[in-house]
Specification:
Elements: E1 2-7, H1 31-40, E2 47-50, H2 54-63, E3 69-71, H3 93-101, H4 114-131, E4 137-142, H5 144-154, E5 172-176, E6 178-179, E7 183-184, E8 188-191
Parallel strand pairs: 1-4, 2-3, 2-4
Antiparallel strand pairs: 1-5, 5-8, 6-7
């Protein structure tokens, strides 16, 4: 199974603002970026999944070749709770320090931890693998945290190392999974397209 995981293009968020599940719009113009991403995909017959947030859904609809885009809440970015739309500098230093020291298990107030995000993302991936055949091609349009979670799972790396994996705006990460007795978690190629 070929899976192409694509991060949305740049948003209208101001630099230094904490956003996760806030429904932001994309920086315009984005048509050329969308077309570059579409041209970079070597496949034409694929199933498209997306985070329901506008910044992903718009790109997914552009890539869908007029097929249905399946939006799934499990593909949303991490929920930063009370920190959403605040500047990182305005968050209490003690709270931010606690989170940074253990972001895997600690969430923002009324938000979720990276582990919580990871569990919902893995639930989605495992369901995807059960419901599709090896010869199908899948596109997933999502967010940096979700993509890092998928890569951590497929590459069997600790979640504490997830943010060492580069996932730029508009990047395409190709994963090829082969099925024998079980799914072998293997092979990924990251390609930057948005710049």
């Amino acid at each position: 199974m070929e899976i192409y995981v694509i991060r949305h293009t740049p948003t209208t968020a101001l630099t230094g603002v904490c956003y996760g599940q806030s429904d932001l719009t994309l920086q315009e113009p984005f048509d050329e970026l969308f077309n570059n991403i579409k041209k970079s995909l070597p496949v034409h017959d694929y199933i498209v999944y997306s985070s329901p947030l506008t910044r992903c859904r718009q790109l997914a609809q552009h890539l869908s070749n007029e097929t249905t885009v399946s939006c799934d809440d499990r593909l949303k970015e991490i929920d930063f709770g009370l920190w959403e739309n605040q500047t990182w500098d305005s968050i209490k230093k003690e709270d931010l320090s606690n989170w940074m020291n253990d972001f895997v298990n600690t969430g923002a107030p009324n938000g979720e931890s990276f582990k919580t995000l990871h569990l919902r993302v893995i639930n989605f991936i495992e369901e995807l693998l059960l419901n599709h055949t090896e010869d199908q091609k899948i596109i997933i349009v999502s967010h940096a945290g979700v993509i890092r979670s998928i890569l951590s799972y497929l590459l069997s790396t600790p979640l504490t190392h997830a943010f060492k994996l580069p996932v730029t705006f508009g990047s395409i990460t190709k994963m090829t999974l082969h099925k024998d007795d079980a799914w072998n978690k293997l092979i990924y190629l990251n390609k930057e397209t948005a710049s």
